[in-house]
Each structure stands twice: as C-alpha cells, then as structure tokens.
C-alpha cells in the first residue's frame, strides 16, 4: 500500500524514480508524485491518477537531476486529489517527505504545530512530518537530528523517505512496521518499498529493521537504529530475483500471466520437498525447529484475504493428517482479542507479500509468549520472513496483479506438505498425496488448455449482479476464494457459503437471477452437494458446477459444467480455484475493467 522510491547517483533521477514507481504501482494508484532538486532549486511534481500521468509531466519538464524521491498513493487519510498527493512539504518548501503507513497521533501533532503558526494544506497524516522536521531543524540546525526527533514523536507505522534543500545530496529514510529496502549500487544508491523497483539497477540490497534510520548519499549508506541508539553494520544481501518473471511478456495483463504460471508455482513449491521415492517431505526452512515441532499441540494460523482462505484449507489438511487442532483467524481480529496461549502452540502466518500489516502485528503480538512463530510466505526477504522463527517459502515468483492467484495455489501446496510433515509419516495419505503433488502441475495445465470453455461461461453469465459460491470440506474455502475473486475484479456481489449452510438462510435469495457456482468435484460428500444443487434448482436458480472429468450425471442437474481432472480432496482446491480465477478474469475483461488494478484496492496492505 503506497509505493516509495528514492535515488541518488549519476543517472537521471527522475527517470529512475518514474520507472520505479511504475513497478510499484500495484501498491496504490490514486495519485503519484516526486520531489527533486535541480541546481539547488527544489521541484515537486504531482498528478492525480496513475504514474503514467506523472510520467507525462516529468517528460515535459525536461529535468536533469541526480537526486529524487517519489510516491504512488493508496489513499488512507484524505481524499484522492492533488493536495493530498505526496510528496508533502513544509511551509518554506525546503523539506519533502513521502510516506507509507499511518501516523496515528497526527492530529495531536497537527494541533500543537498549528499553535506554533504552522499551516496545513492537505488532509493527510503525512503532512505533519515535514512540518515537524522543520520545527526541530529550526531549533537544532542538524537535519539528521531533526529527522530523528520527529521519528521519536510520531506513533504508528511508517516507511518515510525525506529530502532537504539544506542537504541536497542526501536522502534520509526510516522504517517502522512498513517495508523499506536499500539498493546498493556503484556510486549510486536506491531506497524503495520493495526490490522490484530497483532490481533493474542492482541486486545488492539491505532489508531494514524496525526503527532503522538511513542516511544515503551516492557513495555511502549509513544505517543506525533509533531504539538501540547506535550505528549498525548493514547486512548486504544478494537478490535471487529474476526480473524476467516480473515482466509481462506476451500476456495482456499480469493476472492472466500469473494464472498461467500456476503449473510452475505448484512445481516450484514442491520441488525438492515432495520426495515420494524416499517417502519423505523435506522442508529445509523448518529444520532448525524440528525438535520444537514435535511438541506442538495447537496451531493458530493468522492471515488476511486470499491467504486466510488458504489457511482454512490448511485447517482441514493439518487436522486430518497430523491430528493437531488448528484454528484459523483473520489477523486483524486475532490482534485485538485475549485468548489463552501455551508454549506448545505454534503460530503460522500466511502471506504472499510478507508485508501485510495485520499479519505482522499478529506475529508481534505473540513475540513475548515464547510460542513458535512460523511463516508461509512468497516474497523472499519480506518482513514476515524475517521476523518468524522459521518458515517455508512458496516460491511462486513475483505476483504483481492485485488479485492473488498463483500464490494461493502455492500456499495450499505448501500446506499439504506441511500437514504431511507434521503427520510424521503416520497418515495413510502420505504416499498418495506426495505422488499427486507431482502430477498436479500437468492437471493444472489441462485446465488452462480449456480456457475457451471458461471464457464462454463468462460471456454467458457476466450480466448477473449476484452470485453464490458453495462447497463442502476443502472446497468450502475454495468457494470463499472464488467469491472473493469475482467481487474484487468484477465488482459483482458474490458470497461464498458452506453448501450445507444454504438452507439456514442464504437460499432465501435464490431466484432465476441469482446463479450459484457449485463446487461438486468427486468426494465422499458429493451426494450431499447434489442435494444442495437440487434445492437451488427447485427455486429456479441457475447452477454452474465444477465437476470431475467423467461425471456425466451432474450435467442433468446443472445449467453448465466445467470439468477438471480428478485429484485428491486435499489438492482439489488448487485445481478448482483456477476455474474460478479465470471465470472472474473473463467477466472483468468483458466489463472493460482493469483486472490488474481493481478500484479501491492495492496489493500489499501495509496499513492496519
Ligand atoms: C485477494 C488478495 C488479498 C490478499 C490479502 C493478504 O486477491 O490479494 O485478499 O490475499 O491482502 O495479502 P498477503 O497474502 O500479501 O498477506
């Protein structure tokens, strides 16, 4: 949420910043802006809307500068307009700040500064920062000290990058509970919300920790920590990130590209981990906690959105295969409730980005409880991967479309492996499931090869205003995920329900204008799902079914059927969601929406 980049070096700073903002745009696209200094003259350019608008005015301005900071906004405080676009400045227009996060005590600071004569032009929380730096700078005449004094006053979450006319060859930055990474170059340096913005220029990065304060010149990187009050020796890491993966190639958009990367996502998530020949699951990331894992008697999974639904699938898998009780909680709820914890509980945070504020807060909440904190994360080097005791990467590759697709598939693959691992070989499912995981990429590919059938279905149903998605057992979370995909990219009202719950209320909504997407793949519960389909049909509700190849009976019950290859109930959600992702995708395209950047949303929700 909100993308930030700063650059200092020999290249055109505005070009580097614009290109960086373009790759960060998935984090927010309400407005974009940058600040730069040319011949000691500060210049701020802002535009409401996409980065492409900012690019146009930057190109017209023909700036030649070597330092710049930029921002692409997802609005939290204050509407989407020019005055609320970042960078924000002090009254003298000498201090420039871009911010991701929320400053919770902004209104108190604002009131105090107003008494001292400071005037505010925006409705944002961020604007207090340049004014507060200004306030301290006028007293102590040392920018770094003024910046640090400001950081000590503000509460909440931030990644902040600042520029000052008084020190035109330095970028200042800080982070607390919001992501920020330094890119180390040759006679140039970068700072950004995530590595995708700088990968084109350098693979050497320094991930920042909470309370880190950074002073960046073109030839030096100084990192100190506000809490420990000392300078740190930064740890430079080498990115193992293939920029090709983050490019669109021949695809019309990232969502379709990422759905088509599903077979590779499954393969990469199980590569070297699912070893049926050796009757073994190898999860290297858990090796250093293998002793602790033996004593775990309760698991709490915390996650948000699509990752939460993957967690719900995980609940069935772990309980049934490993016999360990599992609770899945939305991290945002988990954070504000009191519940008893014993040290034999493990917390598993599931997150594609590894930067979701609520999920990070959940891990921080249990920091002092002595419980094992594990992560199932896609983004390598992200905050969650660094604050957990151990974890398993999803290896799905960068996910850029706002709607999560291949990451869900990789998360459920990893959860299958984790459940098998925790079962310590005791489940009968061990061998069949390990074999199945290796067959799954080809089965996913077979669904992608029948994409035209799903497109036809979308053409038929795109005009409906409401949808129900139903499923049982592991297909229930898949139904929830299917409904979420339709809502978020097509803006069609959709709800997911456990099929058995229909009669307890939702069926009242059913009529000829309210179609149901029924997940009815082969399972011991299929007959029960048939009954639910009959009940819907008896009320004239159109029914689309996802069924297993070979089930000819279901055709008589439903208006439309999409067939998928036979798999195990544990892996079924992986294949089912591909159909529902594509259905939502084609409806959104048919309606002419921007599938990669749906309205009101941003990837990486870094504010609570
Ligand atoms: C939906 C979607 C979101 C995310 C949620 C959690 O398509 O992308 O619901 O799943 O914001 O994000 P991560 O997984 O990055 O923690």
Could you explain how this protein is built, in words?
The protein is of the alpha/beta class and 608 residues long. 35% of the residues lie in helices and 23% in strands. The protein is built from 19 helices and 27 strands. The strands form 5 sheets. It has an 8-stranded antiparallel beta sheet, with helices on one face. A 7-stranded antiparallel beta sheet has the order 5-6-7-8-12-13-14. A 5-stranded parallel beta sheet has the order 19-18-20-21-22, with helices on both faces. α1 (13-24) packs antiparallel against α2 (51-61). It is globular.
Considering DSSP H and I runs of 4 or more, what fraction of the residues is helical?
25-40%
Amount of beta strand: 15-25%
What is the CA-based Rg, rounded?
25 Å
User: What kind of oligomer do you see?
Assistant: single chain
Lateral strand order in the biggest sheet: 3-2-4-1-10-9-11-15
Alpha carbon gap, first and last residue: 11 Å
Write the topology of this structure:
Blueprint: E1 3-8, H1 13-24, E2 31-38, E3 41-48, H2 51-61, E4 67-73, E5 88-89, E6 95-103, H3 106-115, H4 128-140, H5 143-153, E7 156-164, E8 171-176, E9 181-184, E10 189-192, E11 204-207, E12 212-216, E13 221-225, E14 230-232, E15 237-238, H6 254-260, H7 262-270, E16 274-275, E17 280-281, H8 290-293, E18 298-303, H9 305-322, E19 326-330, H10 331-334, E20 345-351, H11 357-365, E21 372-377, H12 383-387, E22 390-393, H13 406-422, H14 430-449, H15 451-461, E23 466-471, H16 475-490, E24 493-498, E25 516-520, H17 526-537, E26 543-548, H18 554-557, E27 560-564, H19 572-590
The structure holds fructose -6-phosphate.
């Amino acid at each position: 949420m909100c993308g930030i980049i700063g650059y200092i070096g020999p290249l055109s700073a505005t070009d580097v910043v614009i290109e960086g903002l373009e790759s960060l745009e998935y984090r927010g696209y309400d407005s974009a802006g940058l600040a730069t200094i040319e011949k000691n003259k500060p210049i701020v350019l802002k535009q409401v809307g996409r980065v492409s608008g900012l690019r146009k005015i930057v190109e017209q301005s023909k700036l030649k500068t070597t330092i710049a900071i930029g921002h692409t906004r997802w609005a939290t405080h204050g509407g989407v307009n020019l005055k609320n676009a970042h960078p924000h400045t002090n009254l003298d227009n000498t201090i420039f700040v871009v911010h991701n996060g929320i400053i919770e005590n902004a209104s108190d600071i604002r009131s105090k500064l107003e008494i001292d004569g400071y005037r505010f032009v925006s409705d944002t929380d961020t604007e207090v920062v340049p004014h507060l730096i200004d306030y301290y700078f006028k007293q102590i005449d040392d920018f770094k000290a003024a910046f640090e004094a400001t950081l000590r006053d503000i509460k909440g979450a931030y990644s902040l990058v600042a520029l000052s006319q008084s020190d035109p060859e330095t970028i200042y930055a800080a982070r607390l509970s919001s992501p920020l990474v330094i890119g180390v170059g040759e006679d140039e340096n970068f700072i950004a919300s995530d590595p995708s913005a700088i990968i084109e220029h350098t693979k050497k990065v320094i991930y920042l920790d909470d309370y880190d304060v950074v002073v960046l010149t073109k030839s030096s990187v100084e990192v100190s920590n506000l809490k420990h009050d000392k300078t740190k020796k930064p740890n430079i890491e080498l990115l193992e990130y293939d920029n090709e993966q983050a490019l669109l190639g021949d695809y019309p958009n990232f969502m379709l590209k990422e759905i088509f990367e599903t077979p590779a996502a499954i393969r990469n998530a199980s590569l070297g981990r699912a070893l049926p020949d050796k009757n073994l699951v190898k999860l290297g990331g858990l090796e250093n906690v293998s002793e602790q894992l033996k004593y775990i008697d309760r698991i709490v999974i915390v996650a948000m959105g699509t990752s939460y639904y993957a967690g719900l699938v995980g609940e069935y898998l772990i309980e049934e295969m490993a016999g360990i009780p599992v609770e899945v909680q939305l991290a945002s709820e988990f954070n504000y409730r009191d519940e008893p914890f014993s040290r034999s509980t493990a917390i598993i945070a599931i997150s594609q980005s590894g930067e979701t504020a609520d999920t990070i807060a959940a891990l921080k909440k249990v920091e002092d409880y002595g419980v094992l904190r594990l992560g199932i994360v896609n983004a390598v080097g992200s905050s969650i991967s660094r604050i957990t005791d151990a974890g398993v990467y999803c290896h799905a590759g960068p996910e850029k479309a706002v709607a999560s697709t291949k990451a869900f598939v990789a998360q459920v693959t990893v959860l299958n492996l984790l459940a098998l691992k925790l079962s310590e070989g005791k489940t009968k499912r061990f061998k069949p499931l390990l074999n199945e995981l290796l067959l799954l990429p080809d089965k996913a590919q077979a669904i992608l090869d029948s994409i035209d059938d799903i497109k036809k279905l979308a053409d038929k149903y795109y005009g409906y205003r409401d949808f129900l998605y139903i499923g049982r057992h592991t297909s229930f979370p898949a139904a929830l995920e299917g409904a979420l995909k339709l809502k978020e990219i097509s803006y069609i009202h959709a709800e997911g329900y456990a099929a058995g719950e229909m009669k307890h209320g939702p069926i009242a909504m059913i009529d000829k204008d309210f179609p149901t997407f029924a997940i009815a793949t082969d399972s011991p519960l299929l007959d029960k799902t048939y009954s639910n389909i009959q009940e819907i049909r008896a009320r004239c509700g159109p029914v689309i079914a996802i069924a297993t190849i070979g089930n000819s009976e279901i055709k008589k019950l439903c208006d439309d059927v999409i067939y998928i290859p036979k798999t195990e109930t544990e892996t079924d959600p992986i294949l089912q969601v591909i159909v529902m992702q594509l259905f939502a995708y084609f409806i959104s395209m048919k309606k002419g929406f921007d599938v990669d950047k749906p309205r009101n949303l941003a990837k990486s929700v870094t504010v609570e």
